[in-house]
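Budget justification aside, the reviewers requested a transparent look at the raw inputs and outputs of the sequence design task funded under Objective 1. We therefore reproduce one unedited record. The lines immediately below are the structure tokens for a 213-residue chain.
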């Protein structure tokens, strides 16, 4: 049975949610951030040198990195679910949006978060450019969800499980307003209606209200 090492309020919610969507049995091991630094506890570094979540243990395998874990679980246990194959007309869209979260969305949110904490002047060129990049990325997501029910197309896939954290829980660390993005907000309401998402959030972060608007 899989063991998911989940750090509260983190990207590891992706893995809990994926397993709930697939109906996979798993053991959930909770880890709590340091109250002062908000960093991972030493127990995670004992599992993996980077000391970050998520980490899964599957038999003798210890695997980190949410994208790699998603690929591993889908390949080994997914049975073709939540993926689109090369013969599907939306295959390329699936691949693009599966990798978009860690390739574009999450990095630009992280850069904006760090720059905000530096209290730079509003006209600082780096800050202006980074904010502009965030607007560009969010507008791209908004445009996509204006023509598709889910990121890969008409069906829910792992591309959605990879992306939703950045639009929801990440706002705990870097608040940003979704009011200008009605299609994103409608999409998040659809996500919030999914029993597997609700179950994953209850199990992974029971004291946190999902940020779906």
């Amino acid at each position: 049975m899989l063991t998911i090492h989940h750090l509260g309020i983190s990207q590891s919610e992706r893995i809990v949610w994926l397993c709930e969507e697939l109906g996979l049995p798993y053991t959930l091991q909770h880890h709590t951030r340091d109250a002062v630094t908000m960093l991972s506890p030493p127990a995670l570094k004992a599992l993996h040198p980077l000391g970050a979540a998520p980490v899964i243990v599957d038999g003798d395998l210890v695997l980190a990195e949410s994208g790699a874990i998603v690929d591993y679980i889908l390949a080994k246990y997914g049975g073709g679910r939540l993926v689109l194959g090369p013969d599907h007309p939306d295959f390329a869209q699936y691949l693009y949006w599966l990798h978009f979260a860690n390739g574009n969305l999450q990095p630009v949110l992280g850069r904006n978060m760090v720059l905000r904490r530096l209290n730079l002047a509003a006209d600082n060129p780096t800050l202006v450019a980074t904010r502009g990049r965030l607007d560009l990325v969010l507008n791209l997501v908004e445009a996509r969800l204006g023509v598709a029910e889910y990121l890969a197309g008409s069906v829910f896939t792992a591309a959605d499980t990879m992306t939703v954290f950045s639009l929801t829980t990440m706002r705990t660390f870097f608040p940003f307003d979704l009011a200008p993005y009605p299609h994103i907000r409608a999409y998040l309401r659809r996500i919030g209606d999914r029993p597997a998402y609700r179950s994953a959030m209850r199990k992974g972060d029971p004291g946190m209200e999902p940020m779906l608007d």
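Residues 27 and 37 are 27 Å apart (CA to CA). Residues 91-117 form the longest helix (27 residues). Computational costs for records of this kind are itemized in the attached budget.
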